[in-house]
Specification:
Blueprint (H helix, E strand, L loop, with lengths): L2 H8 L7 E7 L6 H9 L6 E7 L6 H11 L3 E5 L6 H11 L4 E4 L4 E3 L3 H11 L3 E11 L23 H10 L3 H4 L3 E3 H6 L9 H10 L3 E13 L33 H15 L3 H13 L4 H14 L1 H9 L6 H10 L1
Parallel strand pairs: 1-2, 1-4, 2-3, 6-8
Antiparallel strand pairs: 4-7, 5-8, 6-7
Helix pairs in contact: 6-9, 6-11, 9-10, 10-11
Amino acid sequence: MSSAVNSSIAEPGHVPRVSVGLPVFNGESDLPGAIDALLAQTFSDFEIVISDNGSTDRTPEICRAYAARDPRIRYERQPKNMGLYWNCNRVAEMARGEFFKWSCADVLHAPEFLERCVSVLDADATVVCCHTRSDYIDPQGRRLYGVDPAGDGRLGTSPVVHRRFADVLFTHGWGARSFAVMRLDALRKTGLLEYHYGWDKVMMAGLALQGRYHIVDETLCFEQDHPTIQAGRDGRAGGHAASALPSTHDREGNGFHRFAFVRGYLRMAWGLSPDVYTSIRCTGWVLLYPFQIRKWGRLTCAAVGRSRLWAGLRRLVPLGAGRGARRQARKVV
């Protein structure tokens, strides 16, 4: 970044084009790498807004050191942990840019990430949200190869509004796309995140009603895969991400409430659709949403797997036990 750009950004009152929101809690091990990757972006007109959710490790010292070194970093520390969703909303509320993206301590971005996404948004006003292809990394930062977390790049690209809305309701990858570069005014119209696990999908449906999505055909975003990693035999990069079974709760114990989602989708359909016809079509998609038998079956199995009853059965009868042992266990229960 040239000194001219540096001086411009450092001027009092300068409003950056992009705000990167970084909510964090006890992220000392990964945070420096995430911030360094953002500061190395080839697109330099951005700010990093950090909300520290009452961390008890060295996160505050790390953030203050970075903020003292680079004027693009704004740091706010909360006196106590306010919850994940509150903290995510907080950085969006603090943002000043035309565009906004969430990041976190365990996500790394290639230097060209912001440049590629901003160029798409500048070139096409109908695009409301731009991400790149993404991949997984293990805790050591080695690249893994698995399913692209951002999902099918063709989804959400239709010029027909209600079809974009249906893409969000019935397909995957929207959680990852919530880390895209988005138009901040459109994002705020969605009401941001409610305190329900998976509400980012409702938010993304609200964005789909306001514009198209775009996926840059380059892998420039890397998410850390926390479950067990199936790496190569020699432990080098090139292993595969090992995805866990779908969970019905997030890390804070917030549950997945499908009918709360129905309410949220209906609110988006009638609050953000461009016309009544689109609202009606979107309402039809919402009425079909609870009848995704395969999806709810997976979530139900995940919930059963987390139950105390199932844990007790697992202790009584190992998974490898034969049919006779399982039949005997049913008699005991």
